[in-house]
Fold these 2 entries.
Entry 1:
Amino acid sequence: MNLSELWMGEKVMIKSSGKIGIFEGVNSEGKARIKYDNKIFLVTAQNLEIVPEKEVFPDIYAYLERENKTLEAKAKVLDITFNHTIDLHIEKLAPHMKNELSGRILDYQLEKTRLFIRDAIDRNFPHITIIHGKGQGVLKSEIEHILKDYHQVRFTFSKNGGGAVEVWL
């Protein structure tokens, strides 16, 4: 792998450990700086693999299930804080992605939404809020499609003047 092909904030896997972290740049010795669990690891290019954003969550979620990780450990790995609300504005959700293509941002927001819903169900939360913003309605529409896949939820888009959805699990 050529480190110059990586973007700041891109998700990468350290092959030797299976850890998925964030590319933070290259040090003076030519090693990649990878942030994982609030620590910086220095890794050679040969020990890295780019993890496409769409593929990160299903694969890592399956790994965590296989390894019998707790929901708190999953949250740490998946960068989700478990309160009853998720704000999908990219500036809050993943500031490092604010200059990405809109399609890539939307994919990221939808994956985070799916994980948030799944983990809220796993935690038996009775109620959650998903803040999607008002915008042009693209994200709102996609969230509605996602929510319809879960037979155990009811929802309304009346919160925050239509900029958020309330979900009852």
Note: The two ends are 44 Å apart (CA to CA).
Entry 2:
Amino acid sequence: MQISILLIDFGLVVLAWMVQLIVYPGFAFYAPSDLKRWHGLYTKRISLLVMPLMLAQLLLHGMLLLWQPDVVSIVSIALIAGIWGSTFMQAVPLHNQIADNPDTETIARMLTNANLVRSIGWTMVFLLTLSYF
């Protein structure tokens, strides 16, 4: 099970940092009408990658917490809960603003800033998971 957790955690780290360094900053280069058009496709496609990974991570780390309750599993699940909170309280509302916000540079900066918390969180979870090996 630990190798599965490690692979899921690593996938989320790579994905989060790609979004952090490439995708969200790239939104600033779109004209508002082009970003609105692209954003609908982007969110559907990225969700197909991110949501299964996030759900698998939550499930596997939850199982690990039940089977092996230690400091690492407790801190990991707390970080994952924070990432979920940041996703649904910060990132999702910002994505929803794209349809109404003509200032693509500001929204790109806000998404990048909000995503930094998640990118660091996923990196920390991955590093904690590495401690099992």
Note: The chain has one domain: 2-130.
